[in-house]
Each structure stands twice: as structure tokens, then as C-alpha cells.
Amino acid sequence: MASTLLSRRDLDFLLYEWLDIAALTSRARFSEHSRQTFDAVLDLSAEIATKQFATHNKKSDANEPVMRPDGTVELIDEIGHALQVFAEAGLIAAQFDEKLGGLQLPVTLARASMAWFQAANAATSSYVFLSVANANLLVEFGTAEQIDQWVRPMIEGRYFGTMCLSETSAGSSLADITTKAVPQPDGSYRVTGTKMWISGGDHELADNIIHLVLAKIPGGPAGVKGISLIAVPKFLPDDTRNDVALVGLNHKMGNRGTTNTLLNFGDGSFPVGSTSGAVGYLIGEPHVGLSYMFHMMNEARIGVGFLATALGYTGYLKSLEYAKVRRQGRPLDVRDPTSEPAALIEHADVRRMLLAQKSYVEGALALGLYCAKLVDEQQTATDEASASRAGLLLDVLTPVVKSWPSQWCLEANSLAIQVHGGYGYARDYDVEQHYRDNRLNPIHEGTHGIQGLDLLGRKVVIHDGAGLRALLTSIESTVTQATALDDETKGYAQALDKVAATLASTTAALWAADDRAVTLANSSVYLEAAGHIVIAWMWLEQWLAAAGKTGAFYAGKRQATRYFFRYELPKVGPQLDLLASLDRTTLDAEPEGL
Ligand SMILES: Cc1cc2nc3c(=O)[nH]c(=O)nc-3n(C[C@H](O)[C@H](O)[C@H](O)COP(=O)(O)OP(=O)(O)OC[C@H]3O[C@@H](n4cnc5c(N)ncnc54)[C@H](O)[C@@H]3O)c2cc1C
User: Fold this and answer.
1) HEC states along 321-372?
2) What pTM does this model have?
3) How far is the CA of 81 from the centre of ligand 1 (A)?
4) pLDDT digits over 272-297, tens only?
5) Residues 6 or more apart in contact with residue 590 via CB below 8 angstroms
6) Burial code of 98-117, b = ≥16 C-beta within 10 A, e = fewer?
7) What is the position in ligand 1's atom list of the atom closest to the CA of 130?
8) CB 569 within 8 A of CB 536
9) For a surface tag, which of 134, 194, 311, 468 has the fewest beta carbons within 10 Å of its beta carbon?
10) The predicted structure's pLDDT at residue 295
11) Which among 128, 197, 230 is the best mutation to test ligand 1's pocket, defined by most ligand atoms within 8 Å of the CB?
């Protein structure tokens, strides 16, 4: 029976028929691999996700973590067991260098592998997700000793990692963090402060937890330019407990199996050498920690997009199954009340909801894998121009790959509930949990609003607009290819070409306003319009990859492309018109009237 987590057929199409990741094996970094090893990793991922992760998804939702009186955390046993199986299969090591004990697989494949786990169990997979991002940051900016000490055990699954940015009063605005790191004569630091919302912040699932903490070293510049990155292990090299205390667990709407914590650093709960203050170690240079953390956050943002996509995808597949077996009502042209009721999928409006979901989740998966391939290109392209083009494109697409799936694959989950009718609202079915789990994704790793500001305020203007130009050039190349085909394809190509040109002129008009407040007032609308344009591009790419191929799978790709171009892309026109008019409705709204 086909999986209701993800579609392996779709992954094969996207990875091999469209992105041609088998060709990556001709590059030195991946030369030990082949299509066979890639397939084996995908098979193994699907199997472990199905047998070890999906099986406790509902149980961990119903039994959220509890803080025991001694400060330890009670979690259901299945979480630790599943993570152990995952680590023993070598999957944490997927994308890391062989010299660190990694498998040196392409990031594209590692992401596809991880998507199985995210679809099966968002909460349990998050422990790995954070640790991999943490280890990646340390590989990039840590010393050889720090890598040996922390990254190797993380790759083996013995240590886990966190990212500690947020504080109770500083979430979106990290300039306002108050956590301090005071240098010590031996070169270490003592960290004091409170961090809020820290995922995986405490538990007994691993021998150690390496917290990557944003803190200010006294005397440094004000604002984000004075933020440093400090690694604070829960246990110090001599196994002494470090002064990091779990103050409490947050009770969440979804993702309940991931502990989410309020952590006190250095409050004296576990004094080290009889002195309070958590012992920490500076990563890289002082005061530039936020730029290092962005390395982790950018990776995490692509990962959040994948998480949203995977949850949307599994909800879609489950509602598709349901629509085939649930019988209700009769087709509009059948008037005989004694006739057999039709399956839900026979109704055009149910098909609309299925097509919408398909176009969102498969479009989002295509974008996620495309961006992952850009990471591979950036790291392994054989010429500098290709690597730098991939970097530019990745930079401009990062807010989109994080936000678009978080918005529209959440909408897919809402539609999956709708397809189930009343049963979708009940906890007996999976889809209500997928919705709750997915609702986090527009909030963390930079809210939707912050991604809009990042895209319009930074990404499309830095380097004199080179990122936006790289995106428009890539879209243009797909349009040119599509224009050479039949009339239907040409029609979609022209529609995409038109909105892409309007996006360019709207961006220019917004920045010509010479008033930053007006330019950025509707940046979320800009993000949403740009997102729909990018996904239309992803659909035209898939349409081209399916061209001339027959069978239900390819017909499905064409149906979803038609849906996206006819029902979704036209939404962009009014959004761009509003933006180009420099509308001030939101800016001028009186707080008293809200
Ligand atoms: C389940 C969960 C897990 C998390 N995991 C982690 C973690 O592991 N590590 C970590 O460090 N953090 C984590 N976070 C924190 C998360 O990143 C923050 O919640 C997020 O950055 C938003 O910050 P905030 O909650 O303080 O909201 P606020 O910053 O107060 O934002 C509230 C609203 O105001 C808007 N807003 C804020 N500032 C602006 C602005 N300048 N312009 C326009 N709009 C604005 C936001 O878009 C949002 O809609 C997690 C959060 C949750 C809920």
C-alpha cells in the first residue's frame, strides 16, 4: 500500500527526473555515492519513519513532557528509542564530511531523507533537526578542538544541540537581548541570563546538550553588532553539571513531544567551582555571533519550510485516502435518491480542495528541494560563477522557502480537515494534529512578518539587487523554454513572465518612495506575492519535466499546474497593485480604532 506520509514516486520525480541529483555523483565530494546509495537512504528513511516515528506521533501528542520534582524531564520512552534507531542507522551523519564520521551525502538527499521523519513525527524529528543545524554551525565556525569535543558526539547521536536566541522580552528583536557573557582569566566565559522558548532545551535523551547561546560581552557595541555566540554545554568536559537550570516547560498547541523550555543560565542552581554563572566558550570572534547564528538560522529556515511541507503533504495524502472511501451525497446529475452514495472524491468541490492541497504541498516540496540543491551547488559547483549564482539565489529564496510552505501547507492541513468533515475535527483522525503541529511554523525561526521585512527590506536590495535579478533571470530561462512548446504551456509561460516583470517594477516603485516606513509597511503582502510567483515557477518547471510523459502520475502534475496557474497565480495581481500604489491603510490605522 502506498505510504500516507510522503509520496516516494513524487520524490523520485523531483530528485531524479527534474533536479537530476544523480549527476552530483560526478563531483569529487559525492563520488563515493551512486543512485543506488541514494535510493537505499530514501528506502531506509521511509522504513524507520513509518515503523519508529509515525507509531508514537499521537501518543507523544497526548502525553506532553512533564518536569519532575528533581528537575529532570519525563518523556514517553518511544521518543528516545526512535532517536536511537535513527542515530544507529547513521542518518544524523548524512550530510557531514567523511573525516568527521559523516556519510557526505548531498544536502538535497539529506533533506529528502529528513522529510520522511518530519511527516511521520514533527516533534521527535525536531531533536535531530536542531542538533544537525547546531553541528553544522560548529563545523563552520568552531575550532578543531570544539569540533572534536562536540560535533563528533552529535553526529553519533550521543549529544544533542539547541539554539538559544529568544528571551522573554526579546523574540523578533534580538538587539534587545540581555544575556551576558563575562570573560574569565582562563579564556572561558561565565554566562548569565534567561532564555525563553528553547526547543530541546532539557531532557535526558542524550549524554550532553550543547546550547548555542546569543549573549552580550560587556563593553561591546550596542544592538545586534554587540552579540556574541557562546557554546554552553549542559555537562562540562570533566562531567561536572554546568550552571544551566530548567525553570519550566511551555505547554504548546502542537509539537508537544519536543520539550520547550525556559532556561536560566548562571543563576547558581548548579555552581561550578562554587561560583554561579554558566561556563561557556566563545565561538569565533566576539560581537559577530549573530552572523554565525544566521548560518544556523538560514539552514533552520529551509528546514522549517520542509517541516511545514511534510506536515501538509501527509495531511493531503490522508485526506485523499479518506475522500476515496467515505461515501456521501450523489453527483449533481444523479437525481435517484435510492442510488448508491458517491465517494467524496466524486464531488467537484472536494476535488478542488484536493487539487489545492496537491498544488501547495508538491509545489512547496519542489521549492525546498530546489533550495537544498542550491546549497549543494554553492558548496560543490565546479566553477565560481555557478557557486556564486547559487548563493545569491539561495539568499533571496530563503525567506520564501521558510514562509510560503508555513502559510500554504498549513492551509493544506486546514483543507485536509475540511475534506474529513466533522471527523477531521475529532482527535480520532490525524489531520487535526497535523494542523496544530504545523501552526508553529509561521512563528518560529523568524515570524512571517519578519521574513517579509527580510525579503523586501534586505534580500531584494542588497548587492544592488543582484539577488532579485538572479531570481528573475532564472524564471526567465524557464519561461523561454516553456514558450517554445505548445499553446497551453506558452499561456502559462506568458502569465508567469508578466507577474515576474510586475514584481520587478513593483519592487522599484516601492523603493522609489524614499520613505522606508511606507516601503516596508506591506512587506508581508510582498512576501506572499513573491511566494506565489516562485511557486508558479516551480510548477512550470515540473510541467516541463513531465512534458511528453504519459500515465496518471504525470497527468496529476499537469492537473496541479493548471490549478495553480488558474486559481492561485491570479491572486498576485491585486496584491502587486496594492503594493505599487504605496497604500498607507495599515501604516495610518489609528491604534485607538483597532
Ligand atoms: C514552539 C516554539 C519553539 C521555539 N523554539 C525556539 C528555539 O529553539 N530557540 C529560540 O531561540 N527561540 C525559539 N522560539 C522562539 C521564536 O523564535 C519566537 O517566538 C519568535 O521569534 C517570535 O518572537 P516573540 O514570540 O517574542 O514574538 P514577538 O517578537 O513579540 O512578535 C509578535 C508579533 O509581532 C510581530 N512583530 C514583531 N516585531 C516586528 C517588527 N519589527 N515589525 C513588524 N512586525 C513585528 C511579529 O511578526 C509577530 O507577529 C520558539 C517559539 C515557539 C513558539
Assistant:
1) HHHHHCECCCCCCCCCCCCCCCEHHHCHHHHHHHHHHHHHHHHHHHHHHHHH
2) 0.98
3) 31
4) 999 999 999 999 999 999 999 887 77
5) none
6) eebebbbbbbbbbbbbbbbb
7) 8
8) yes
9) 194
10) 78
11) 197
